[in-house]
Amino acid sequence: MTYQPSRSTETISPPAAQAEEAIHWGKVIAIGAGSLVAFAIAIWISWGYMRAREKLLQPRGPDPIPLDVGKIDIGIVEQVPFDITRSFAAYRRDRMDRLEHWGWVDRKQGLVHEPIAKAMDEVVSELSGKKK
Q1: What is the pLDDT of residues 35-76, one digit of tens each?
Q2: Residues whose CB falls within 8 Å of the CB of residue 99, separated by 6 or more in sequence, listed in order
Q3: Nearest CA among 95, 74, 72 for reference residue 84
Q4: Whether residue 83 sits in one domain with residue 34
Q5: Which range of residues forms the domain containing residue 48?
Q6: Which of 36, 82, 111, 120 fits 105 for a cystine, CB–CB 3.0-4.6 Å?
Q7: 3 state SS for the chain
Q8: What are phi and psi of 93, to 5 degrees?
Q9: Are 113 and 102 in contact (CB under 8 A)?
Q10: Is residue 53 part of a domain?
Q11: Beta partners for residue 104, in sequence order
């Protein structure tokens, strides 16, 4: 049995109508360059407008940066970063949730924690039962 290779992989030039649809790289590059020039002009105009607005709003120039910016202690007030306070609030909420609700400590061993109020009531009732 002999194998005859297929001729489908041979290069065939496209029809004349399709050959005219080729990408015109000169036009693509010209449009890209024109877009960059237009963008640069828009940046230059915006920058000029911003400088004029700054001069109008701050005729003596920008205010100096205070020396205490970025320090943790300003005067006698301790400035706490916001992310620390948020994380503390989430930690406290998690701890209070654990104290006030039932939950698993270890499912495999069947160990459960109970609300603190119920646990205190049980301790009080056990201690009052022993005294009698």
Answers
A1: 999 999 999 999 999 999 999 999 888 888 777 776 666 666
A2: 115, 116
A3: 72
A4: no
A5: 16-57
A6: 111
A7: CCCCCCCCCCCCCCCHHHHCCCCCHHHHHHHHHHHHHHHHHHHHHHHHHHHHHHHHHCCCCCCCCCCCCCCCEECCEECCCHHHHHHHHHHHHHHHHHHHCCEEEECCCCEEECCHHHHHHHHHHHHHHHHC
A8: -65, -40
A9: yes
A10: yes
A11: 112
Tokens of 82: 């916001």
Residue 89, both tokens: 């609030």
Rounded distance between C-alpha atoms, residue 101 and residue 112, angstroms: 11
Residues 51 and 91 in one domain: no
Q: How many domains does the chain have?
A: 2
8 lies in some domain = no
* Angstrom distance (rounded) from CA 38 to CA 30: 12
Predicted pLDDT at 37: 98
- Name the residue with tokens 């003596």: 60
Whether residue 49 is contained in a domain is answered as yes
Decide if 107 is inside a domain.
yes
